[in-house]
Amino acid sequence: MSEQPAKTAAEKLAERMSRLKDLHRKRNEARTQNHQAVVAEDKRNKLPANWEARKRKADWILSDEKAREEAKEKGIDYERAKLLQMDALTAEKLSRKKKKGVANNGFGDFEQATIKQYNSLVKNIKPNMEAYEEAKEKLGPAFYGDKNAILHGLHKDKKEAVDRMVQDLQKQAEKRAKFSRRRTHNDDADIDFINDKNAKFNRKLEKFYGEYTQEIKQNLERGTAL
Q1: Could you list the residue range(s) of the whole structural domain that residue 215 is in?
Q2: Model confidence over 129-163: pLDDT tens digits?
Q3: Residue 37's Cα: distance from chain center in Å?
């Protein structure tokens, strides 16, 4: 077996330089990738907290619209086809969600409820521009309520305006008295009430004192209470 000739000093230096260049290239690549990762993480941190959920929802909406258009072109009932591909558990959850949306009277939080009430009240306002200009001319700078104006006693509400406000408040009170949020019935829940009024009372007790009375209730059910 023939021996390989020993490498010269120039060859060894060239080999070392090649390895050194390779190490420099890998270090620069790692530095670039690390910088890109830091920039991407900083960008994600600046996004809203629910960004991922909103993005998934937007992607689902786009996918659903595309599938709906394709079904329309083929002459297929999209809703029926979607239900046929859906398992029973998912269909039941979807049905409950729709019923809950109807029970909430078209809004999901207090902000939307406030906006709805505000728009309803504003819609019934009919400004009297003649009275507005008359009061503006009579009161002068005090009409706008600057820092030096004493507003008490300058303006007196008309009887018609007061009556209109009283009627509106009465309508709101009557509407609140008639409205009760419809709750979905849970067949698996324990029956611990004798009528609807008692059920509401028990729900309030559970809401405020449930965490304190849970152990006592369990002991009573097991028969181990002292």
Answers
A1: 193-225
A2: 888 888 888 877 777 766 666 666 677 777 888 88
A3: 30
